[in-house]
């Protein structure tokens, strides 16, 4: 069964994703702060597991390290959870919208079988990358700070500028030499 794009399967998966986040809220809301941090910390490593899976299964480090917002989110999320860093938490509160967008507009993964490792390592990390930053604020583990909005936008712009130049350099290298930097020759 394919995931699809706004198919019944896709819509049910969106509802399940909301259910996972809401379920985590109700399970953890009356627990100690230590339990909340440990649980969210463990779950926050799902994005790193997805990056490792993509590196091994697809062999494409330039695509997955960290040239996607979700990859950046996955790398920063465990640090933000375990350190309760206010700036990183506020950055992730904005970046989590990218994870939501990736699940809703799933055009890259629409043809993926829902009972596959590819789906598993795409869907669940994105759900958690969306939900965990919201839960951090809902539990009061990180303080929301309006002043951090400018820092968040600044960090995002700097990172995207650097990533843009890395991608442009890689593309320029392909055009000039006909070879990718990582894999050697171009595939036909």
What is the topology?
Layout: H1 8-28, H2 33-44, H3 46-58, H4 61-64, H5 69-83, H6 86-104, H7 117-138, H8 148-177, E1 179-180, E2 184-185
Would you summarize the structure shown here?
The protein has 188 residues and is mainly α. Helices cover 72% and strands 2% of the residues.
Structure report:
It is a single chain. With 188 residues, the protein is mainly α. It is built from 8 helices and 2 strands. Strands 1-2 form a two-stranded antiparallel sheet. Strand 1 (179-180) and strand 2 (184-185) form a beta hairpin. The chain is globular, with a radius of gyration of 18 Å. The two termini are 29 Å apart.
Number of strands: 2
Give the helix level as a range of percent. over 70%
Q: How many domain modules? A: 1
Largest sheet descriptor: 2 strands, antiparallel
Give average pLDDT, whole number: 82
H/E element sequence = HHHHHHHHEE
Shape: globular
Alpha-carbon Rg, integer: 18 Å
Distance between the termini: 29 Å
Q: Please give the count of helices.
A: 8
Strand order of the largest sheet: 1-2
Structural class computed from helices and strand pairing: mainly alpha
Sheet-strand content, in percent, reads under 5%
Low-confidence stretches: 184-188
């Amino acid at each position: 069964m394919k995931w699809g794009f706004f198919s019944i399967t896709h819509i049910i998966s969106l509802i399940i994703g909301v259910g996972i986040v809401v379920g985590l809220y109700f399970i953890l809301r009356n627990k100690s702060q230590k339990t909340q941090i440990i649980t969210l910390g463990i779950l926050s490593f799902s994005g790193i597991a997805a990056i490792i899976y993509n590196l091994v299964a697809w062999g494409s480090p330039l695509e997955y390290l960290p040239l996607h917002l979700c990859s950046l989110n996955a790398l920063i999320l465990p640090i933000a959870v375990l350190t309760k860093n206010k700036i990183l938490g506020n950055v992730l509160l904005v970046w989590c919208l990218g994870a939501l967008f990736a699940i809703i507009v799933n055009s890259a993964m629409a043809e993926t079988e829902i009972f596959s490792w590819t789906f598993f390592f795409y869907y669940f990390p994105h759900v958690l990358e969306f939900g965990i930053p919201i839960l951090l604020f809902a539990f009061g583990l990180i303080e929301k700070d309006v002043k951090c909005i400018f820092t968040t936008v600044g960090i995002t712009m700097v990172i995207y500028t650097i990533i843009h130049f890395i991608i442009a350099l890689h593309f320029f290298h392909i055009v000039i030499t006909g070879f990718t930097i990582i894999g050697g020759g171009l595939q036909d």
